[in-house]
């Protein structure tokens, strides 16, 4: 304890030098905190974007993605995912809604105006399953899936492009050569990872299958009761489809899985970005190494004196380690405050940039600073403790 | 108490070997006042460093309180230095950033003595060397004589058996030199073994025994009866 005071005194005796050395660590710690705060912010932002559609969702796509390579002997035919499959899944216990999906591009024409847009072939369950709101009129009705009426619902942007401010309800448009009557307009939803959800038109799925001449669906989205476990739902879906198709020629993706994969990718991103900050922390460590080496050299006589007064080699070692630890701890503390301050300031100045200061990274950065400080101090301190006392005394 | 048997210490510099100590044998008993004299380079400091366990001889045996020190490890040697030996150097060797009191406290800090006890002993030690009113001053704010008195207080704070002084007055004017000498002799009068290295014959003559070195060998070793009757 008293040796610690002695070490602190030695550091404080040269405030400018100590300050500059600590600054190197402070910059490193601040960099780690700032960068991980941005990484963590982006992480949270993206996850929030995804979960806005609800988390008790499950998607079935045709074809089996092989995780462990394809065995050549197992050539199997893939059956298309049919409307009947979707209907069977919708009847399963615990499934509250099912949306068969087909997607394509077509031009939508109203009078003289026209626009190429994304066509989504779906059913009446879209607002429930995708958590979308209708702004005007209503969504597609619950018609007989095989023989739907030719109704259409516009996305917010398509509505604006074709009709401006005018009410489009009841108007007739042409899509892919067929006529549809507009029954509703969706509320704006914005973009999801670059995909404009508002530049779309929703049509009955059977009509779109015919329009694009497709036998099967691209996807079936299921909404299940929130209290059910996603694994149980996935198992029920799998056995139902296995019974209908004879083998597993489809892929089930639960929202949980998706979030897990996404979360781990984003987590790696944060760590990678934090490691960049770690490099500047390392540079700060080199600064400590340099200063401690100089300091041991300059204070050789003092080391000799301490030995003459009865200091053990270990005490000399501890003394110089304490000095470098003090330097890095001071720097770490300053960096901690600067880093969180900058992150907060950034969040205020650039509100669009998601920033989140995570506790675990704060602790990590501080711990790293002290570890680096100690590591940088080891070599000079060991040299000090090994200096023969006579030689040290003669150095003056 | 101090028994050197055929101690040799040599330094190899390039092709030359300097025999700083050449088969030196010496027996010093508790409470003695020994002056070590000789021309520059004769091995006086080397002898003192060996006696003070700061340096290891290349050959010979050194018994301190009957224990062979030549086989001890660094940790034991440090313990011996801390408890039994005090050093006073020509250039004082005070830590410049510490106050006089903190310099005196230093050996006790290294020994792990509690703060309260340290303060009490420091106050007493500074009083004994007449520097009570300089306790808070840093070395640069003290005169040479005052600095050396702080160094003497520090060297004796752990109650050592031996005080080793290497040219303690070498950097001082005559008056403050005499003050320091008087201080050391008072300590010797209280029972402390004093070994004083000097090349000043008038100072050496004050001791009760004089060892003369020449080229690393003991040239003469005689009892002096003519020592001044200093304070008993
Ligand atoms: N660490 C050392 N390395 C090389 N030579 C040394 C060392 N210490 C002492 N010497 C040499 O040993 C001899 C005795 O030195 P020293 O004991 O300091 O003499 P004195 O104190 O009597 O002037 C000198 O020639 C000196 O140069
Ligand atoms: Mg000398």
List the defining traits of the structure above.
heterodimer, A: 396 residues, alpha+beta, 2 domains, 6-stranded mixed barrel, elongated, B: Rossmann fold, 4-stranded antiparallel sheet, binds adenosine-5'-diphosphate, binds magnesium ion
> Helix count of chain B?
7
Instruction: Tell me the number of structural domains of chain A.
Output: 2
Largest interface, with counts of residues having CB < 8 Å to the other chain, equals: A-B, 25 and 27 residues
* Relative helix content of chain A: 40-55%
Q: Major β-sheet of chain A, in short?
A: 6 strands, mixed, barrel
- Low-confidence segments of chain B, given as residue ranges, are none
The name of the CATH topology of chain B is Rossmann fold
CATH architect. name of chain B: 3-Layer(aba) Sandwich
Poorly predicted residue ranges of chain A: 68-75
Give the C-alpha Rg of chain A: 33 Å
The overall strand count of chain A is 12
Mean pLDDT of chain A, to the nearest integer, reads 88
> In percent, how much strand structure appears in the residues of chain A?
15-25%
| Structural class label of chain B | alpha/beta
* Assembly annotation: heterodimer
Tally of strands of chain B: 10
Tell me the helix content of chain B. 25-40%
Give the strand line-up of the largest sheet of chain B: 6-7-8-3-9-10
Radius of gyration of chain B: 18 Å
Give a quick rundown of the structure.
The complex is a heterodimer of chains A (396) and B (232). With 396 residues, chain A is α+β, with helices and mostly antiparallel strands.
Describe what you observe in this structure.
- The complex is a heterodimer of chains A (396) and B (232).
- Chain A is built from twelve helices and twelve strands.
- By secondary structure, chain A is of the alpha+beta class.
- In chain A, helix 2 packs across helix 10, helix 2 runs antiparallel to helix 11 (359-386) and helix 8 (255-298) crosses helix 10.
- Chain A starts with a helix and ends with a helix.
- The model of chain A is unreliable at 68-75 (pLDDT under 50).
- Chain A is 55% helix and 18% strand.
- The longest helix of chain A is centred in the C-terminal third of the chain and has 44 residues, at 255-298.
- With 232 residues, chain B is of the alpha/beta class.
- In chain B, 34% of the residues lie in helices and 28% in strands.
- Chain B contains seven helices and ten strands.
- The mean pLDDT of chain B is 93.
- The radius of gyration of chain B is 18 Å and the shape is globular.
- In chain B, helix 6 (174-189) links the parallel strand 7 and strand 8.
- Chain B has a six-stranded mixed beta sheet with strand order 6-7-8-3-9-10, sandwiched between helices.
- At the A-B interface, helix 1, helix 9, helix 10 and helix 12 of A face helix 2 and helix 3 of B.
């Amino acid at each position: 304890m008293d040796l610690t005071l002695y070490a602190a005194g030695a550091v404080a005796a040269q405030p400018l030098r100590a300050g500059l050395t600590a600054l190197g660590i402070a910059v490193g710690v601040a960099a780690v905190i700032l960068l991980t705060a941005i990484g963590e912010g982006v992480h949270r932002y993206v996850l929030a974007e995804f979960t806005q559609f609800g988390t008790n969702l499950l998607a079935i796509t045709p074809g089996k993605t092989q995780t462990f390579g394809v065995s050549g002997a197992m050539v199997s035919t893939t059956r298309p995912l049919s409307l009947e499959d979707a209907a069977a899944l919708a009847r399963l216990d615990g499934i509250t809604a099912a949306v068969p999906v087909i997607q394509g591009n077509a031009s939508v024409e109203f009078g003289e105006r026209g626009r190429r847009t994304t066509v989504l072939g779906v059913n009446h369950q879209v607002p429930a399953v995708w958590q979308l709101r209708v702004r005007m009129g209503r969504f597609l009705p619950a018609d007989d899936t095989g023989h739907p009426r030719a109704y259409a619902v516009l996305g917010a942007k398509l509505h604006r492009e074709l009709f401006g401010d005018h009410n489009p309800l009841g108007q007739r448009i042409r899509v892919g050569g067929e006529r549809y009557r507009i029954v509703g307009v969706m509320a704006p939803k914005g973009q999801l990872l670059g995909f404009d959800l508002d530049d779309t038109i929703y049509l009955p799925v059977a009509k779109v299958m015919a329009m694009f001449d497709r036998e099967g669906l691209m996807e079936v989205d299921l909404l299940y009761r929130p209290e059910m476990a996603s694994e149980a739902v996935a198992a029920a879906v799998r056995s139902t489809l296995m019974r209908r198709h004879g083998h597993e020629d489809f892929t089930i993706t639960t929202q949980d899985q998706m979030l897990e994969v996404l979360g781990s990718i984003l987590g790696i991103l944060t760590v990678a970005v934090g490691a960049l900050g770690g490099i500047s922390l390392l540079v700060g460590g080199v600064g400590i190494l340099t200063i401690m080496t100089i300091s041991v050299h300059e204070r050789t006589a003092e080391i000799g004196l301490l030995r003459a007064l009865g200091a053990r080699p270990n005490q000399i070692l501890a003394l110089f380690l304490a000095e470098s630890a003090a330097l890095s701890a001071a720097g770490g503390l300053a960096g901690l405050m600067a880093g969180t301050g900058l992150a907060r300031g950034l969040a205020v100045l650039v509100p669009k940039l998601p920033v989140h200061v995570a506790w675990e990274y704060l602790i990590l950065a501080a711990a790293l600073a002290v570890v680096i400080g100690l590591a940088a101090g080891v070599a000079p301190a060991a040299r000090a403790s090994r200096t023969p006392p006579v030689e040290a005394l003669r150095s003056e | 108490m101090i028994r050197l048997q055929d101690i040799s210490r040599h330094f190899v510099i390039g092709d030359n070997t300097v025999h700083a100590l050449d088969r030196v044998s010496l027996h010093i008993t508790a409470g003695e006042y020994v002056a070590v004299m000789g021309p520059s380079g004769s091995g006086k400091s080397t002898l003192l460093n060996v006696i003070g366990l700061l340096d290891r001889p290349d050959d010979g045996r050194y018994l301190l309180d009957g224990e062979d020190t030549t086989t001890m490890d660094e940790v034991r040697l440090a313990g011996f230095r801390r408890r039994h030996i005090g050093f006073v150097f020509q250039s004082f060797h005070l830590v410049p950033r510490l106050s006089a009191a903190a310099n005196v406290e230093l050996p006790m800090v290294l020994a792990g003595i509690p703060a309260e006890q340290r303060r009490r002993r420091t106050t007493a030690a500074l009083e004994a060397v007449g520097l009570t009113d300089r306790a808070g001053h840093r070395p640069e704010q003290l005169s040479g004589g005052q600095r050396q008195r702080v160094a003497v207080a520090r060297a004796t704070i752990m109650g050592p058996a031996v005080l080793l002084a290497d040219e303690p007055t070498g950097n001082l004017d005559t008056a403050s030199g005499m003050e320091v000498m008087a201080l050391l002799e008072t300590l010797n009068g209280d029972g402390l073994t004093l070994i004083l290295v000097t090349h000043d014959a008038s100072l050496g003559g004050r001791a009760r025994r004089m060892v003369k070195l020449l080229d690393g060998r003991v040239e003469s070793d005689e009892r002096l009866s003519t020592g001044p009757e200093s304070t008993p």
